[in-house]
Amino acid sequence: MGLDFSVVPGFLDSILIGALWTIAITLSSAAISFFGGIFFAVISLYGHWVIRLPFRAFAFLFMGTPLLLQLFLIYFGLIQIGIDLPAFVAGIIGLGLHFAVYNSDIIKAGILAVDKGQHEGARTIGLSKGQTLRKIIVPQAVRNVVPPIGNNMIALLKDSALVSVIGVTELTLSAQLAISQTYRAFEFYVAVAVCYYIINLCLEYSLHLIERRIQISR
Amino acid sequence: MSSEKPFIDVRHAAKSFGALEVLKDINLQVHKGQIVAIIGPSGSGKSTLLRAINELDPLSGGEIWLEDMQINKKLPPRQYEKHINKVRQDIGMVFQHFNLFPHLTVRHNITLGPTMLKGMSKGEADKLAEEQLAHVGLSERIDYYPSQLSGGQKQRVAIARALAMKPKVMLFDEATSALDPELVEEVNLVMKRLAEEHMTMIIVTHEMAFAESVCDRVLFMDEGVVVEEGPPEVIFKNPVNERTQNFLRKHLNG
Known about the structure:
- The structure holds two protein chains of two kinds.
- Helix content of chain A is 79%, strand content 0%.
- Chain A is an all-alpha fold.
- The model of chain B has no long low-confidence stretch (mean pLDDT 93).
- The longest helix of chain B is centred in the C-terminal third of the chain and has 16 residues, at 181-196.
- Chain B has nine helices and ten strands.
- In chain B, 39% of the residues lie in helices and 24% in strands.
- In chain B, the strands form two sheets. In chain B, strands 6-7-8-3-9-10 form a six-stranded mixed sheet, sandwiched between helices. A four-stranded antiparallel sheet of chain B has the order 2-1-4-5, with helices on one face.
- Chain B is an alpha/beta fold.
């Protein structure tokens, strides 16, 4: 059986819908991972140990176990204790928290890299510790670490394929559905790979624009 | 010295880092509208003293008063935080390295404090920022980021930022030491203008000529003590203490 890409256009609409799901899941979990990352970073740097230690344990849980397992646990496991999440919500939460833990380490380094004079400048005006953190330190820390956070976002986009196993019809699953009808694995996987690639190019370009925009304000 | 109550009153200030005593029983009274310069070799404790006044480097002993309020009160952490944030609004500070916020425009560097701490509306704060910038001669730079300014301009913005909080006293910690020589004058001019407006100021500086021309009183510090203090014409022309003489000889001959 040779290759025949002419089967692909017939499934174009379901692939595009899959692509939209992939984009939606990526953007939502990217948002969770970004703000969650800031939250975890602040807690692990400034939190009281009563809060800090459980958070560290939690973070290590997310770093030390496979993302796939975490998705299974959130989707199939939580239902047993009465938490019944739709598949895409479970997927977004799993991806978001997983990458939030990775982002938090990066943002932590970003916070520590902010010059001590910035704290002093803010505190001498009369800002409280919290205000200083919110208005002065974190915004600068985030600017410091846009490139590595961006790398995580690209990894997140690719790992979003994992939510196909809990039944979210995103790009990868839409390919598998098409393959199950046509037995054209190579053609559809390539088609979907091209989609991932294009989405990633857009993502990278946006990151590039962000980096250029903040250059002046660093 | 006048008999009225001092505006800033430092009593028996002591500070040590481990076994190292950086301030030993320092007393300093500054009256309203006075301008005091603190000079001395590096490591003499002059910056530490200045930074103790707004509790950036809290003292290990002694008291600091601003009018009727003790700045370094011993309070439980939460109350202390409230107290010190309030106190610091009354004490403007200018640093050697400016410490402008690089992620904010000049405008927002200035309006941040007034809007967040004094409940000023955006419009009022904008007007205030414009006034303060006009004061330091930088009106046209209001929407620039700090990275787009020269060192002298940055320092003038930092002064405007401090003044926007309407402080009762201004502290200058080697405000011109990090500047290229040709940029020092523009900052000195702004400080001179403040002096003419009778702002109470404590100035840690290496600029002897500036200290001499602007200040009412000069303190010479060495090894954590005030070695000699007096009016500038005495300290600079006829210092009594040998250490002061040596320091000035080195400094004035470049």
